[in-house]
Each structure stands twice: as structure tokens, then as C-alpha cells.
Amino acid sequence: MICPCCGREFQAKGNGKYCESCRHRILDEYTKWRRMKTRKKLKKCIVCGRPLEHYTSPYVCSHECGNIARNILHTEKQRLSRQANKQWKEKMCYGNGKEQPAPRRKLKKPLSPLGLDIEQAKLHHMDYPTWMNSKERKEWKAQCT
Ligand SMILES: [Zn+2]
Ligand SMILES: [Zn+2]
Fold this sequence. Notes:
Elements: H1 20-35, H2 63-80, H3 84-94, H4 113-123, H5 128-133, H6 135-144
The protein binds zinc ion (2 copies).
One zinc ion binds next to helix 1.
């Protein structure tokens, strides 16, 4: 196949339309742009490398280059599949993790037995004393142990 981006011939893998080097370069440039806090306009198009002039996008020079970039980004996103969105965001915002640590997720405190009972009471639409006396609680406790 001929890569529509650089015009070189390459061995297509799967349904990839663009050669490896173009894909990597574009993803790389795009990731760099995403990691800039300012998201300001780049000097060069991430697809063809031409200087950016009046086109509205901050990282491509034209509609065609925009399509190529979108295509490649889309394929990459699908490649990550399943957890696509989460992985994608992590990848695009934090790359290899050198620049910024991944945001720490707030850990939920494990509930104390009392907390658990309160949670369960709520789940069963009972108030706490009723819950503590109920048959369901005993059944639930039995299930847990
Ligand atoms: Zn190429
Ligand atoms: Zn371009």
C-alpha cells in the first residue's frame, strides 16, 4: 500500500491506512501537543510538517491533514479498545508518565462493620435500628461470612 501521508510504500497491518512511521510521528506530535498546558497553536502541522497559517486547527494545516490525523487517532483509540477511553485519556494526557505522575485516584475508605450496617440499612430502605433487628440483616450477615 502507498501511505497517503508520506507517499512511501508500506506493508499494511490490519486496516491501517498509513505507514508505521507516519502513525508514530503523528501520534507523537499530537501527544506532545496534548501535554502542553496551554494547547497553543503549533508552528508546524503534525501531519505534513508545513507551517501552520490560517487554518483554524491548532495542530494541522488543512482539512486534509485534519482528516488524516483524526483517522490515525481514531484507529489508535480503537486499538486500545475495551477500556479505550480511560487508557486513551491517560495516554494522551500523561504519555509515558515521565512528565507528570498519573492522577491518584481517591481511595474509598473501607467501611467499618458499623458503616457497612448503615450502608445496608439504607439499601434496604430501613433506618438503622430497624435494620439491626431485621431478619434480612441476619440473612445478609450469614451471606457475608
Ligand atoms: Zn507514511
Ligand atoms: Zn498539514
